Amino acid sequence: MSEQKREIMRLEGIRKSYNVGQPNEIEVLHGIDLTLVDDDFVALVGPSGSGKSTLLNLMGLLDQPTAGELYVLGQPTRSMEDQQRTQLRGSALGFVFQFHHLIQAFTALDNVLMPMMLRAGKPNRDAIARARELLAAVGLEDYLQRKPNELSGGQQQRVAIARALATDPALLLADEPTGNLDSQSAEDVFALFRKVQQEHHCAVLLVTHDNDLAAKCDRTVQLVDGSITPEP
Questions:
Q1: What pLDDT is attached to residue 98?
Q2: What is the arithmetic mean of pLDDT over 176-197?
Q3: DSSP codes, the chain
Q4: Which of 33, 61, 117, 204 has its CA 20 to 30 A from that of 70?
Q5: What is the CATH code of the structural domain delimited by 7-228?
Q6: Chain-centre distance of CA 32, in angstroms?
């Protein structure tokens, strides 16, 4: 009998509307059901305007649904206070974006330390060792003291991935993480996501417009007009 995997996130009947109660109210997500478990490696695809960014914001606990429930590690989140949501987001979720959003005045090491500093204050020896370990894991052990403008685009994205792993998240959410890279750097960064998933046993949800990249994921979720289309 195969071991049952841990549920990381579950969306049940998620709906999202804007301008609620106004004449121009519009619903952009229409009853989304989706479950992510340990070791999932999922591509989220869909045309522009399909609701991918809205869905990602909800999954990242950056916004709240109009209806339905979103569970993170078994905890219902819709009725959580902002502070609870912030704490859960900081401990369970990691984010990587198309534009890495590194702090330009900080070194690569300091950028990776930032999530740990936000959670625990001034970094101690263990935190610094952890940041060094993560940068080594993404192939940047020789670039610890480089600032973002001294790194290539692919290297900056590697720093961003190391930063996202700093809190040992159960789920890594990546929004077009290769969209700003050349084809070789994109291949390298995708391979790094796969390595991260296998070594850290976290789930990965990758938003992409690249069909070739999506085909390399274990599962593809297609969003069209605010609804998930059934898998063939």
A1: 67
A2: 79
A3: -PPPPPEEEEEEEEEEEESTTSTT-EEEEEEEEEEEETT-EEEEE--TTSSHHHHHHHHTTSS--SEEEEEETTEE-TT--HHHHHHHHHHHEEEEESS----TTS-HHHHHHHHHHHHHSS--HHHHHHHHHHHHHTT-TT-TT--GGGS-HHHHHHHHHHHHTTT--SEEEEESTTTTS-HHHHHHHHHHHHHHHHHH--EEEEE-S-HHHHHTSSEEEEEETTEEPPP-
A4: 117
A5: 3.40.50.300
A6: 18
Q: What is the pLDDT of residues 67-123, one digit of tens each?
A: 999 999 999 998 899 989 988 988 899 888 766 678 889 999 999 988 877 776 777
Contact 222, 46 (CB under 8 A): yes
How far from 94 is each of 16, 19, 44, 203, CA to CA, in Å? Answer: 22, 29, 16, 10
Query: In this structure, which amino acid lies at residue 36?
Result: L
pTM for the full model? 0.84
Give the C-alpha separation, 36 to 31, whole Å. 17
Beta strands 227-228; 219-224: pairing state: antiparallel
- Cα dihedral 190, 196, 199, 201 sign: negative
Backbone phi and psi for residue 150, each to the nearest 5 degrees, phi listed first: -100, 10
